[in-house]
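Re-run with default settings, no changes from the original entry. Doing this only to confirm the output is reproducible before filing.
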Amino acid sequence: MPRIAARLLLVVLALHAISTAAGATLWWALDSGPLTSEPELVLAARSGHGAVRTFGDYPGLDPRTAARRTVDKLADAGGFDRSVLVVVIPTGSGWVDPVQVTATERWAGGDIATVAMRYSSAPSAAAYLLRPDLATRSASALLTEVTGRLRALDRDVRPQLVVHGLSLGARAGSAALADPAIESLVDSALWQGLPGGSTEAGRPHRSDRCTVSSMNADDPVTQLSWGLLRDPRRAVRVLTALPGSDSAAPGAGHRYRPILPPPGCVTPSPAR
């Protein structure tokens, strides 16, 4: 058992430490080459509840420029005219959970806009190991652009802001909220499957009551940390549980049931 754990951990360490030409080639293959993945992009489809959906997909652009174009697109679609605005930080491939999006649209009676911006076409695991800062820089750029636009609006017409992230998106989103200029305008933060659990979280939201962090007890992603190096047996259990954890039933493994802002934190106004 210890020998198997050592081998698995060596693989993880090797992937994490790649910074050579071979690593760059691997990243190219996963992010823009033959191994790229193209998941279902729910925000590219029309909402069944009359909500606004905006997806920024600008490969090759720096995060700030991509964020500006994404938020311009959101504004043109009328996103800032809704009572609730949700910024979703996607997983590495740009995937946003369609069940979560539909649940928030139904909860808001359609008076809601959801926006996300892709930062990579590589799977989350590759982004997490090879380009760990990519998601955070993208999340910070998008939230900086969104909050800047919100500040320019009168308070009585300003949408309430919700930030949501799942998996690597939760890690990047919580890190972005460590910026007080961003965090001060966030009415509710919703995290699911945060890698490493609370050890990866950024500064707590100004109102803990309005922050929800959902972690399934059997989700191996929430147990990922360098602390596994000190416990080879636990490392084996966590690493061997990773494959297929996304295919579990909702509420188990790395699949999550929808979560909503706690009562009193965000109030949709369908009649607005």
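The chain has a mean pLDDT of 81. The chain has one domain: 2-247.
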